[in-house]
Specification:
2 domains, alpha/beta, Alpha-lytic protease prodomain-like, 3-stranded mixed β-sheet, 10 helices
Amino acid sequence: MTSHNNREKIVVRTSVLSILANFLLAGFKAAVGLASNSIAIISDAINNTTDALSSLITIIGTKLANKAPDKKHPYGYGRVEYLTSLIISMIVLYAGLAALIESVKKIFMPEEVDYGPAAIIVVAAGVAVKCILGMYVKKKGRDSHSDSLVASGADAFNDAILSASVLVSAIVYLIFRIDVEAYVSTVLALFIIKTGVDLIKKSINNILETRLESKLSQSIKREIAKEPDVEGVFDLVLNNYGPDQYLGSVHIEVPDTMTVAEIDKISRRITKDIMKKYGVLLHTIGVYSINTKDKNIIKLRKDLEKIVFSHKDVLQMHGFYYDEQEKNVSFDIIIDFESKDREQIYKEIYSEAQELFPGCNLAITLDVDASD
């Protein structure tokens, strides 16, 4: 796992490099665009300026995200980065819309262009620089788990494609005297708009905290399941407070013969191991007790499992508890979100379980597993 201090250095260093490169390109392209009367090159220069702004926003967001926790924000400011990545995504979308408007205008109101050697050289250099910059920024973004850098890298690739289209248009014009710049720019503007929309969706999903990355959740569950006395791992919930900042809870099934001291020892060991290996703090480890002494209860549990899993959309059953003295039966079930009628399946299971446990008070929780 990348430390927060090292991560901040990577993001800031990469963003500063991106700012310098974009301002340099913007200056050259603006001069050449004005000289050649090319709206595409001028738009490209404006695009480079917005990229520099995106990188500046990334730096500000990273600095704010690394502020120490305080009384109002006890879990820190890590989610600020999701807001900055949303802002950058909106800048990408704006750049695409602006390019589309200018391109369409030029289709209906074409202007004479005058491409010279300087224009060809500057645009070609811009394509090369943007490709290299895009690959570098995107790689650093993935390495540091920075959505803002990934978005900036994607934007740089879009610019490289846009610049390449301008270059191709210029060459076509010089050879065949056909001006296709506006049409090519229109197609590419639509591509940039799509990229902006995709990035906005991803940023909003991070802010809303959607389903966990399956690879991470499954790895954590497998690690916990390695404990000799843990029979099952369920209800893993991780709350995200920024890139690589998770605080969560989980339930484990253990034999009912274990003492509180033994369970406490396991819980502390799990907390330590998961923090060390994944950087995830499990602040709560709940316990489901598995009956291992009463053969009648063991049989009833197996009979119940047959009933529950006879419904094809049921993914999981856990947390079974039968209090024979108080006549209470409780357990959790997870039904596939793709099921056409989850509530109907729940009602059928409830009815069938009631027949298995006549006279008992049933408490069946329709649970969700946000980690698979």
